[in-house]
Design brief:
Blueprint: E1 9-13, H1 20-31, E2 34-38, E3 59-60, E4 63-64, E5 67-68, H2 81-97, E6 102-106, H3 109-116, H4 128-135, H5 139-149, H6 162-176, E7 188-194, H7 197-213, H8 216-225, H9 230-235, H10 238-247, H11 254-281, E8 286-290, H12 294-302
Parallel strand pairs: 1-6, 1-7, 2-5, 2-6, 7-8
Antiparallel strand pairs: 3-4
Helix pairs in contact: 2-3, 5-6, 7-11, 8-10, 10-11
Amino acid sequence: MTSTSSFNTIVVFGPTASGKTQLGVRIAHAFGGEVISADSRQVYRRLDIGSGKDLGEYAVDGVTVPYHLIDIADLAQEFSVFDYQQRFYAAFAQMQSRCVLPVVVGGTGLYLEAVLARYSMVAVPENPVLRDELAALTDEALVARLAAVKQRLHNVTDLETRERTIRAIEIAEYSRDHEPEPAPDIRPIVLGIQWNRATLRQRIHARLIERFSTGMLDEVEALHAEGIPWERLERLGLEYRFIAQFLQGKISKRNDLIQKLESAICQFAKRQDTWFRRMERKGCAIHWIPGADVQAAFDVLAD
């Protein structure tokens, strides 16, 4: 296999159902590397089928490929992009210390960009005085305050609830006056998986049917039975949101559930592609791999 002197990280990303995990694991195996996941739901324990962890794919020719940043948070925790960046940096440094090549695999554009573009973020303590001040403001005033201090919102969930908006203001105002820790030296080669839209839709449909057949609905029902509120499940998005609505009777028929969910996943895939293209326009050099083709990926890495 080729020398990695020109890069110290391989990144494999693509839309949902694109085959990025299988390709990333194959690459990690070939380079003697380990996978760092970039998926905003796979960080959570107990989200297995709906988040598509597919841990059985982390083996090639009987050899298990180690992975990181999967099953690292409880559902009671709101795992943030800052949390991800810090955990990524720690995993990256630990792998460097062992001379192991990180292979970043995932489709959460925000997580990918947070580490590749080195978002400037700091650990922010709670500020009771500021929180008391903000508690007196209307929702509209809170949004205006956030916009005044943070003109570009990386995370739209900052506006989902008053509590999130107040925390976002707290973070933005603290970060304005405090410098982040220096980011590690990440020199990536980036592979993006491409499918034509019709084929990707077929892959999304086939995977969705498979997940239902392997117990995805039962997984969500069990999570609620064990104490996870419907609201929390719906905030997890896509599979968890629509199945939670179905189990509450908000969606009456199973066929309607599947159709609505499939449509939402396809729309999500389009948004992922838009995010990746925006990364490219902003200067991220992406080598596009047609159809998750293994040989095409290795040809790029061998250049």
